[in-house]
Fold this sequence. Notes:
This protein is mainly β. Helix content is 10%, strand content 45%.
Amino acid sequence: MGSSGRAATLVTFDNLALAIYQDSFSDGGWTISATSGGSGSVNLGVESNVGLQSSNVSDHVVTFGFPFVAGNPLTEVRISQTSGQPFKLEGLSLGDGFGNSNLRIEAYLGGVSAGYAAVDVNIFNSVVPVTFTGWDNLDEIRITNSTGGADLNFDLDDMTVAEAVPEPASIGLLGLGAVAFLRRRRK
């Protein structure tokens, strides 16, 4: 996919208040939502990351699946830009939470799966950096339990993203449009 030359952005969630959110929240141009295997809401918590990766109280981590809601196990987390614009995923910092930490991180383009990575973050009380290569022009990331269970539970500390790199076909179409515009202008 080549090098984009575009600067990466670190999304930290540190501006979010320490709180429990119901089903979804938005921060810094990103929307994070969760779904349940039951009929009710699920909790997304924001807590201090002290003891996981940092000694800094202002370093926040998003917790998925805790505190638990009886009868509503967390089954899927979705991450996308609030604007709907495509993006490049370069990395995530993930922790094991309190449940099954075998994660399936799946990239989506136009609502269609474009590939996935299976990640085991079963390292108690720590955060594992996970890097991605070639995960460009995505419109959504979905995280599920790679074993198919409905007991998804993990922590997300940071996310490294960049502006999407246009696909060669898109660049070619832009070039053709510019040539057509210049020809029309000459007439």
